[in-house]
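dumping this here so i dont lose it
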């Protein structure tokens, strides 16, 4: 897979939502709601597409309530 994203990805489902966008050399991920298996699989594929914009990537998580 070598497909790269150029525009922000925004996905909404009945239970949750997420967005992925490139901001310079940062992949910005935002998610809300309940994660279903189907939503997580779609999210995983989209994150892989975003990662191809860089030669390498590190992923960190922040939980702000």
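and the seq i came up w/
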């Amino acid at each position: 897979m070598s497909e790269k994203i150029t525009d922000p990805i925004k996905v909404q489902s009945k239970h949750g939502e997420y967005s992925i966008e490139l901001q310079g050399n940062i992949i910005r991920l935002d998610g809300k709601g309940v994660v279903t298996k189907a939503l997580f699989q779609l999210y995983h594929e989209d994150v892989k597409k975003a990662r191809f914009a860089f030669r390498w990537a590190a992923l960190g998580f922040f939980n702000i309530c």
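The two ends are 35 Å apart (CA to CA).
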